[in-house]
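Researcher: Here's a chain I'd like modeled. Treat it as a single chain, no partners, no ligands.
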Amino acid sequence: MEAGVGFGSTYPGTPVSDVGDILYEYSKTEQGKHLIFDYAINEKVALEEAIGSSWTGLRSVVIFKHLGMNVAADALHTIMYSGIGNGGGLIIIVGGDPDASSSTNAEDVRLYSKHTHLPILFPSTVEECYKFTKIAYTISEYLKLPVMVYTTPKLSFMTGIITPNRIPNNLPLKRDPPKFERNFERFVNARHLALENKERLMETVKKVEELKFLSNEVDFFPTRKPTNRFDLVIITGGYPYLILKDILSQYGLNDIVPILKLNILYPIIPKSITEFVKEFIPRQILVIEELEPMIENDVKTTLFDANLSVPVKGVWESPKKYSTGVQKGEITHFHIEEILRKYIKIRFPNGLKDYKKELENSKNLLLQREPTFCPGCSHRNVFYALRRVANELKHKNGLDLIFGGDIGCYTLGMSPPWLVTDWLICMGAGIGIANGVAKVLNAYQINNQHVVALIGDSTLFHSGITPLLNALKQNLNITLLVLNNYYVAMTGHQPSLSGIPDSHHSNAGFQGKQLKIEDFVRNLGTPQVHVVGGYDIPQLEKTFMNVFSQNTQGTRIIVVNAECALAVKRIAEQKWSKPRGSQRGEELYIQINESCPMCHECFEEFGCTAIKQTKKDGRVVYYIDESSCMREYCEACLVICPNHCIEKTIINPKGGETY
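Model: Modeled as a single isolated chain. Structure tokens:
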């Protein structure tokens, strides 16, 4: 905002979803009315419209997670040839996920720069995120190239103190008013023009070494006169630098180990590395980074080219005694502390060693908590019905249902007690892979298996349309189950095309109206479209049974409509918080009565998280947590209890209680 961004686009993804949300909210304010913002259909579209905006002269930003880079990569590789021309700066904010905590892989997105030559800024703190983002525009306009700002979950969710400056009233426009200016040689990449643009790109990237205001930093402030040669120096950057500094401070080692902190990750700046090595003459160099050994390999290459012979080791390389794993997950204090013991004699402060041992032992006492659906989530009803139908068809008809999973809240259907996912790869792959499986089953006349591909509303529009068309053009024997909750719910309720535009989500819907998925897929040319509500479990089971067991071949589509329970709960709580009586109106409460025989259907098979256990009169009983229960907005447990031991109480402010 302070840099004068005029255009922003995103497809939300953890850990950077909030960045787009903040820009969207800012764009609706009086001060931010100049900011054009879009929740794009996918990351490729988001990047393409951001470069288009940049070419008109506006400073632009695009935000997505590391997996989004795969979607945007086709455009990115050629956009780097063209650059931004004489347009406004373009920064790409990318959030990695080394621990795969909310992703299907821990891909190292930094490596894209090796073949796109996209410069990467590598902040280590909240203050540097603020500082580097502003500087990125200066670098982008100096190099005439997009610039990436790379972050990871720990840094993205960190809080810190910054000293902000005033947000300018006027945008720093390259031309006023903004408009597109032709640049045929740059923007048209065909034949010899593409190669000429690549040559210019390679020459431009070399200019990064001239950027003194963001050069790499030597972090070493000895309290006593250092020796002529050091046993160890460390090269690192980003969040691992922050952990390293914390450990060195904890053990009083700040004046023993020199550190080279990389602010620019790509391109590596050879001069900063060679000067660092020549100054401290180390016996060994330790490189601390997450995921692939990108920095490590660049350091080795730089030293080889400079004819400097110093052993270089990565944080994952260590003897068995100090082994920390092989590029698995994000780096923690434990990883760095363990590897430092190989090189430095660490003396624990009084009591710290015992505390760490106690902390490590306590981890074994913590139960592993599986992620699950929110109380009242309609996806739970769908997967409960799917599992029951799948079991019945397998037992009675010998029909094996194969479930193709996809990316969204419904991914949790892979967990017990539902176990309704047979593969999970990337967005759109549920139906994409189903195409291949179904074609083989058809070719070999395998009639005892049927493929069911699951997909959410936002994922359908993101990358599901193409594989759906591929199935429809051949009328493959597949069932597509669309779970429509009207939001990009998993990342924070960003707007979806199937959403209802309102004052909070004016960006939702299609051309100012809700796009009904059932109408959309019918218009693609399939007559077999079924629509069912997400809270009608008997109808869900009936629909699934009829569709999966039918003899008619062809692509079938089931659309399950139910608004996200979290969005519904916000509305419900407004009602529930009103004074009792005429203002609150009729109230409904759900309870498990004392006749419950503990058949466990509600707790173990249905898995509602509002149903909990407690002890009463020396025995374990179930009860419903009123603070979690969605009451009249769900009522699913009333349907699934085989013993009719779950009851609802309706309090009518005019007529007392009704049972």
